[in-house]
Amino acid sequence: MDVDLWSDVEATYRERTPRSRELYGETAEHVPAAVGSTFREWTPHPLYIDSAEGVHLQDVDGNRYLDFGMNNGAGMSGHTHPALVEAIQDQAEQGTLYTKPSELLVEAAEAITERWDAVDTVRFTNSGTESTMHAIRVARAHSGRDKILKIEGSYHGVHDYALISKSAPREKLGHPKRPTKVVESEGVPDAVADTVEVGPWNDIDAIEDILQEQVREIGAIIVEPIVMNVGVTQPYGEFLGGLRELCDEYGLVYIFDEVKTGMKVAPGGAAELYGVDPDLVAMAKSIGGNVPVGAFGGDDAVMAEITDGAAHFGTYNANPLALRAVITQLREVLTGDAYDHVDALGERLARGYEDVLADHGVAGHVDWVNSQGTINFFEEPVHDYRDFLANVDVDFHENYWFAMLNRGVLAHPHHPSQQWTISVQHTREHVNEHLETFKEVAPRLARKQ
Ligand SMILES: Cc1ncc(COP(=O)(O)O)c(C=O)c1O
User: Fold this and answer.
1) Whole-number Å distance between alpha carbons of 406 and 400
2) What number does the ligand 1 atom closest to the CA of 127 have?
């Protein structure tokens, strides 16, 4: 990703990270783009990490970062949480893979179904991508229709079935009520892309029009109930409930992709927060405390497709290591007190940002829900992906982000579309440190706007 960094910001980053630069060159000889996931590639070179502990990352040059990126939201436990370290070490000694069920399966499944009214039964996967992929297959099996409707700007992982209209460029968007379908990757077959329709966020009438047109083809709707690949873009009015009614009326399976929201915005995710029951929920990230694991689950009658012929297999599914992490995370780490703690800190950080913006005359606003928040350096509200795209200045935001990083604060995952995560290990002092650092950066931002 090419960006235009202010010369001193780029120079400082380069001076602080020479070993990362070297490793970038060495890794590129063996690994495309020198990263393990293309999202991690950034200009002038990515940070190579040596270790993580608590709320800090240490890079290979010995720089320490106060981490509010928290693994793109997977790290609500913070790093190396003692309860998780103990459980993982213990499990390592008892075997990390059995490829057979164990008692851990019922414990982990119970820990999830107890939290979610909408989830009667659940299957485990290894990532968010797998969770949405399987949820979509099960939904197709249940509805008997091949097409799904997704929302413009949402991301549901990297399988072919939903790699459509996540970050479409302005010139390709089409009509706001009938977004053009934009395939996000080379190699996605047209035949697969044809199984996806795209609708706008927060426009229930436009969604109904699309459903009416294709009443025999579309069998499921998949949404991020808060669009967290467009900052923290909430559903407005009765949008999520309206989609529930449409799904009932048109016989569709309603899928919540709660990979980013699940267990984070409330113990039972966005479904609990907004009081809307989806038919299926896809989960990953923070259900496992930084261990690769995902899950999808939902209504008994829909999940029964798995016993009736919808495939869900996998060597690593429900492996004991991941299940121990899930059980520990849900039972010991993400307690009721933990939510009070992170929600209060989330508000403190968001309000603190608002104060600094006002004090220093920086144009911007904060969107946040509990422990999840994002800073936008423009005042216009964000109702959907198009609002974001019309107003975001990626280069400007990158300069804020690198200026924070150069001062030892990783404010949120790389890219203005991403959001901070407050972990259970963050404290008021960490939030204060984040805000003090923003105060140092803000005057420069004000001058550049
Ligand atoms: C909403 C959403 N769904 C699915 C995924 C894919 O998850 P994973 O990266 O674990 O495959 C992501 C990843 O960021 C996501 O944000």
Assistant:
1) 10
2) 10
Centre of ligand 1 from the C-alpha of residue 18, in Å: 31
Q: What would the pLDDT profile of 200-226 be if each residue is shown by its tens digit?
A: 999 999 999 999 999 999 999 999 999
With beta carbons less than 8 A apart as the criterion, state whether 361 and 323 touch: no
End-to-end CA distance of the chain: 22
Instruction: Please provide residue 112's backbone torsions phi and psi, each rounded to the nearest 5 degrees.
Output: -85, -50
Residue nearest to atom 12 of ligand 1 (CA): 157
- The DSSP bridge partners found for residue 183 are 164
Segment 96-146, tens digit of pLDDT:
999 999 999 999 999 999 999 999 999 999 999 999 999 999 999 999 999
Domain topology for 82-333: Aspartate Aminotransferase; domain 2 (3.40.640)
* 273 pLDDT more than 90: yes
Torsional class of 97: left (φ above 0), alpha (ψ -120 to 50), beta (otherwise): beta
Q: Dihedral angle at the C-alpha atoms of 17, 19, 25, 31, nearest 10 degrees? A: -100
The answer to whether the CB of 108 is under 6 A from ligand 1 is no
Q: SS3 string of 278-296?
A: CCEEEECHHHCCCCCCEEE
Amino acid present at 420 = W
What distance in Å separates the CA atoms of residue 202 and residue 422, rounded to the nearest whole number? 27
For ligand 1, whether the C-beta of 423 sits within 6 Å is: no
What residue's CA is closest to ligand 1, atom 16? 260
Has this prediction a pTM greater than 0.90?
Answer: yes
Q: How far apart are CA 287 and CA 273, in angstroms?
A: 17
Is pLDDT above 70 for 420? yes
Structure tokens at 385: 């992906």
What's the pLDDT tens digit per position in 317-342?
999 999 999 999 999 999 999 999 99
Predicted confidence (pLDDT) at residue 439 exceeds the cutoff of 90: yes
Q: Could you state, in order of their start, the residue ranges of all structural domains in the chain?
A: 7-76+335-448, 82-333
Q: What CA–CA distance (Å, rounded) separates 362 from 15? A: 28
Q: How far is CA 216 from CA 147, 219, 251, in A?
A: 9, 8, 10
User: Which one-letter amino acid corresponds to residue 176?
Assistant: P
CATH superfamily of domain region 7-76+335-448: Aspartate Aminotransferase, domain 1 (3.90.1150.10)
